[in-house]
Structures are given as C-alpha cells and as structure tokens.
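README: folding subset

This subset contains proteins for which both the sequence and a predicted structure token string are available. Records are stored as plain text. Below is the entry for Siderophore-interacting protein (299 residues), shown exactly as it appears on disk.
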Amino acid sequence: MTRVQPEVDSTRQMTRQMHGLGRGLMTVSRVEVIGPEMVRVALTGERAQSLPFPAWAAGDHVKFVVPNEAGELELPAPGEGAGPGPGGRPERGAAGGRPSLRDLIKGEVRDYTVRHVDREAGEVIVDGAVHEHGPVGRWFANARVGQRVGLMGPRGSKIFPSGYAHYVLVADETALPSMGRWLEQEGLSGRVTLISVSAATNPYPFPEPAGAEVEPHHLVLPLGAEVRGPALAEHLRVALSTSPTPDDVFVWAAGEANALRSVRALLKELDFPRHARHIEGYWREGVVAMDHHQQDPDD
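--- output ---
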C-alpha cells in the first residue's frame, strides 16, 4: 500500500536556480595529488570571479574541456550554437539547424564537479579521478602547472534542502568531490552518514564539519554494478533503518548509473518520499560521455 505524501514545505525539497551559460579558458596554477586515484587542480582566470557557486548545490558541475589529440582547445563564443533544449540541456544540433554547443567545442569534454571557488584567490578548484580509459582522466594523471583548460557552465544549480536532521550521502569515485562539497555546506548539522565505494582505500580527503556528527562507511570493491549495487543498497538500508530521525532523512546518491539502480529499487521498495531523495548517475560503465541528464525513470 502506497502511503499518502503530506504537503511538503518548500524548505524541505530541492529547488533549481538557473544561470547564464558562462565560459572561459583557465590556466592550471596548482596540481596536488590528494588520493591514490585523485588529483586536484587549481585554475585561474577571469571565470573564477563569475562562476556561480551557490550554497547547498553540491552537485554543480561544469563542462571541463582539455585539448584534443591535435592540441586544439577552443570554446564557442557567447551566442554561438543552438540554445537550450528540453530541461535546459544544450541541443545537439539538427539537420539544417544551428550546430550544437558541443559541436562547436574544440577539445575533449566531460562533466566535472566544481569543488570550490575562491574569489579572493581567483581560483576554481576541480578534483578529477585518474584513469587510463578516457582522455580527461589521462589529462588529470598528467596535469601540469601552466596547462590551459576550458570551463563552460554551470547552466543551473540544484539547491538541496538544508533543514534535515539526517543526511545519507552515497558516492563512488566520481562523486567523491561532490560528497566533499556537501560536507562544507554552512549550517550542516545533525547526523551525516557517508557511504562511499572505490577500488582504493582512503580515496579522498573529506573535510570535517564542525556542527555535524559524521558516520563514514567506505567500501573497497572492484568496478561492476553487480558487486557495488547490492552493497551500496544494503548499507543504505541499514542507515535508514537505524536512523535516530527516520522521518527526517534526506538521501543523496551519485555515481555509476547501473550500480545506482539497486539504490533506486530500495528507495522504491521502502516508498521513500520523492522530495527527500536525489539520485544521479554521473556515468555508465561502457558508455562514453553519458548524458547524465537522462536519468532512470524511477527517480
């Protein structure tokens, strides 16, 4: 039997904030290895002063553009390319129509979390997982001071609610920077349960929020939805069943889309309120440059 959902206060659900599609070329000013498979780069440039960085928008991402094999790196000028499509996404172009923004970019493009923006220092911080099966992952493995990259966006922000007593955050390697940004939100309090998974131990340096009780659970597992999905779902089930405030919990989960199906299935089984959860696939194993806006229908 499906329970009737009560009317939800606007402060208890996610809202959206749209931005103009800013863009700019940036220069790497610092490179730091922060984990076994994670590199942090600080980027300087004019965009650091205007890039949106609202509070409680831990999932914000930019189009991160690195030179292609030919060494080309070029962003479309403002006004070039097809406008926003459904849901605010860039159109991919159509026969006889304007080319899409993606078509006009010269370089390799992937979505990356905006980890931090320091207006005073004029820096944008982006953390990237190091791997050999993609051009941007390889770029992070070889990042050097002085290299140039392009940033586009964020086009919009998902503003997560700030008043819950218990947050349960679930992430794989690709979403650890978002999880780190969650922990730096001003006013974060109560209990925060972290459920993370990666192939390495101690994969990321998480900040320690002063006003919250953080309960970390890290799983060291190989890639594969058939292994990671059930493990993440079981840890989530325990976190929800043992919550001191079972009616005051917000769940956020991000990572590999197939593994997150187990998380979605659990929340559906529990009839967990839709306004109190956000599940987002950042990537899908075997798919190059997955459009993360195209989510599974259960979310």
